[in-house]
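Tokens for chain A. Residues wanted.
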């Protein structure tokens, strides 16, 4: 239903409260304390060691938005609140915790800095930027890593369903995090070897192995990248402004052979930019990393500057799209 003008403005102006409620509830692990039967607010509060009245009010706001079912002083699950459970196969809890981290939420609070300067507002809190922050704050790095891994449930599966990775003998996942996408790819491509390339602190914290995956620690701005038949870059380019994107793609071009394939996996903005989800992610990138979401034509421009041509954009059943390129 379309909101009245006053309601729309009021709702957007105060939307940060709902977001904070989700972060707090995710941090406390409230959803893990509700199984199939609804639980009284006081019982949830006592299990979490927090104030019953305040938690009940937080939960009521979430229930008013359809996250949790509130009746007779108890809270039960809805399909959305089940995604906050740690054991849900498509759990969003680590993502919510990451969005609630003081370094991330604080950057969004400082949005005005980005608007004034065009630079990531995270630099107000951490002049060295996100990656240095995660390196210096291992518990934030752990939450960030888990948030990226949690995407494997929905987005990784959608990507491997939408694209045939089997023809490639070697696939290198550049900035592949903990290798969740690469492992999903290797599971459907039995003759493929995988190489995971990421920063040393990420590679050092890897806890999951795959018999056909090896990991290389390095910096894509400084170190030579391994040769491969296909290069995957999932949600890496959107972390960076244009110049750095071209540097990353050019480093891949130097390592690639003439028949290698470039696979950029991320959301692709509609050409008219009229998509609230993509526009929100675009602002997260502006404030947190200084990157941006891009249209297919913007991607094509990056590809061209680095010696690739954009061949095809493949939709997946998730917001991820696969932008395929080949060396010119
Ligand atoms: C947004 S995360 C995406 C991770 C993974 N591809 C995914 O989609 O879940 C960006 C990744 O780029 C890595 N990264 C950042 N700077 C890097 C650099 N200079 N060299 C190599 N990897 C880097 C980060 O460590 C992180 O794993």
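Reply:
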């Amino acid at each position: 239903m379309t909101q009245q003008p006053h309601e729309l403005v009021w709702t957007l102006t105060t939307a940060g409260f709902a977001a904070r409620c989700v972060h707090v509830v995710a941090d406390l692990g409230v959803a893990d304390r509700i199984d199939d039967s609804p639980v009284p607010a006081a019982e949830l509060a006592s299990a979490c060691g927090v104030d019953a009245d305040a938690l009940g009010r937080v939960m009521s706001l979430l229930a008013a938005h359809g996250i949790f079912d509130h009746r007779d002083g108890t809270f039960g699950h809805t399909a959305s609140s089940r995604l906050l459970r740690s054991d849900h196969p498509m759990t969003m809890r680590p993502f919510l915790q990451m969005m609630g981290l003081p370094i991330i939420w604080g950057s969004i609070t400082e949005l005005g800095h980005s608007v004034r300067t065009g630079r990531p507002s995270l630099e107000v809190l951490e002049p060295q930027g996100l990656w240095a922050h995660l390196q210096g704050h291992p518990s934030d790095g752990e939450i960030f890593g888990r948030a990226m891994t949690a995407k494997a449930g929905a987005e990784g599966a959608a990507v491997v369903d939408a694209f045939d990775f089997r023809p490639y003998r070697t696939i290198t996942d550049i900035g592949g995090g903990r290798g969740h996408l690469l492992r999903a790819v290797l599971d459907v491509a039995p003759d493929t070897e995988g190489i995971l390339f990421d920063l040393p602190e990420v590679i050092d914290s890897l806890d999951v192995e795959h018999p056909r995956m090896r990991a290389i620690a390095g910096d894509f701005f400084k170190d030579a990248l391994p040769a491969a038949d296909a290069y995957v870059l999932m949600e890496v380019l959107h972390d960076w402004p244009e110049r750095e994107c071209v540097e990353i793609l050019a480093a891949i071009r130097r390592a690639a052979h003439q028949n290698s394939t470039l696979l950029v996996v991320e959301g692709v903005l509609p050409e008219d930019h009229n998509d609230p989800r993509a526009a929100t992610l675009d602002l997260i990138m502006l404030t947190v990393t200084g990157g941006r979401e891009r249209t297919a034509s913007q991607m094509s421009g990056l590809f061209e500057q680095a010696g690739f041509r954009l061949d095809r954009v493949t939709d997946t059943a998730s917001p991820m799209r696969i932008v395929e390129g080949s060396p010119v």
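The radius of gyration is 21 Å. Residues 131, 148, 151, 175-177, 198-199, 202, 219-221, 234-236, 239 surround S-adenosylmethionine (CB under 6 Å).
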